[in-house]
Write a structure and sequence with these properties.
alpha/beta; 6-stranded parallel beta sheet; 43% helix
Length: 369
């Protein structure tokens, strides 16, 4: 493939989430392969700062906001169109539902080729039936304006086909991947030390911190500590729950951190409780660090975590099952180690950044044909 100029578009710059972390790694990897990259992002927060620290060209577009606002969104379509007309990219790659809609309209006005990555569809679980119906209609229209659609899981591809968003020829599954360069592994702690649990997730829907906290309250007799990494609107409620269940001495809230690989490397078990998901990037980071994973069996999670092989899948919001899963791994260091080793092997085979880049560049080729 000859060198391309690719413009990436995403809304939120104020927090690092799965979609923004994915975009940064993707853009950096594509640029390293000799292509020209420009990121257009809503706002000038932490994501824009990280992009520039990685020597990625980044343009902040204040009108590109996450919330729906007809006046602002209409203005954004034409401001983004003007930017794209100036940049003259070979391809526009859009991330997140709002950027996907605004970006595809803007690109279509210029006759530009575009790819859309669905980091979970807006009509997935947890959305009311009325809203699901509206979002399905919008996505069907948007699909006509898209040359190729990437879904981050087979689960998302299946629900898009069922919703008649697009046919399978227009959609390609490209699982998220993370860089092997950031892998850190610390030796296991000495016998008698508490088992270190960690969950990395923002305190907002769709994450389910409460099911973990309540499950931990059922196994107070075991020797463990828990670290929650992340911030968000639900954090104060979680802190109050921990106090009321008399777990304050054993659960730590670390807030948003920029050293997640190091914190994962110091842990023994990774936990991710969710009400719904796409394909969580942080699970791959945990597998890279050789951690066994306990995760809610929702969305595309089972495409990375193999039940009873690399971790334990827990039914959505099931406190008893979560407590049982935690107990089984806390009580069995040998099982933790074997699951972690198999998880790392699965990561190296299926979920590296290089694998993701290779598959994504093939999608670009299809979109440009």
């Amino acid at each position: 493939m000859h060198p391309l100029h690719i413009v990436y578009v995403i809304t939120r710059s104020d927090v690092i989430g799965g979609a923004s972390a994915h975009l940064l790694d993707l853009a950096e990897g594509v640029q390293a392969k000799g292509h020209r990259v420009t990121i257009i992002i809503g706002g000038s927060g932490i994501v824009a700062g990280i992009a520039r620290s990685r020597e990625l060209s980044c343009i902040c577009l204040p009108s590109l906001v996450r919330e729906i606002s007809l006046l602002t969104d209409f203005k954004c379509i034409f401001e983004l169109r003007a930017l794209l007309k100036m940049l003259k990219p070979d391809l526009v790659h859009l991330h997140s539902a709002k950027a996907g809609m605004i970006g595809r309209l803007s690109a279509t006005l210029l006759g530009l080729r575009c790819v859309y990555t669905a980091h979970g569809w807006p009509f997935t679980e947890g959305v009311s039936g009325k809203k699901q119906a509206i979002y399905k209609k919008i996505e069907r229209v948007m699909a006509y304006l898209t040359n190729q659609i990437i879904t981050v899981s087979e689960f998302d591809k299946r629900i898009a086909i069922d919703a008649r968003v697009a046919n399978s020829k227009k959609m390609t599954v490209v699982h998220n991947g993370v860089s092997e360069l950031n892998a850190i592994r610390f030796p296991a702690g000495s016998e008698g030390q508490p088992t270190k649990l960690i969950m990395v997730a923002r305190f907002e829907i769709p994450k389910d911190h409460q099911v973990v906290i309540k499950a931990l309250s059922k196994i107070k007799d075991l020797n463990w500590t828990m670290e929650f990494v992340g911030d968000g609107p639900g954090l104060p409620f979680a802190i109050e729950s921990v106090k009321s269940l008399e777990l304050a001495g054993r659960i730590v809230f670390s807030g948003a951190c920029n050293d997640v690989p190091t914190r994962l490397a110091a842990a023994d078990i990774f936990v991710l409780a969710s009400r719904w998901e796409g394909f969580p990037l942080v699970i791959l980071e945990a597998m890279r660090s050789e951690l066994p994973v306990i995760a809610s069996d929702v969305g595309g999670v089972k495409e990375s975590v193999e039940h009873d092989v690399t971790g334990i899948l827990v039914p959505r919001s099931d406190e008893e099952y979560m407590a049982s899963a935690l107990k089984s791994l806390i009580s069995n260091p040998a099982l933790r180690i074997s699951m972690g080793q198999r998880g790392r092997a699965a990561f190296k085979t299926n979920f590296t950044l290089e694998t993701m880049l290779t598959k994504t560049l093939k999608v670009y080729e299809k979109a440009l044909q």
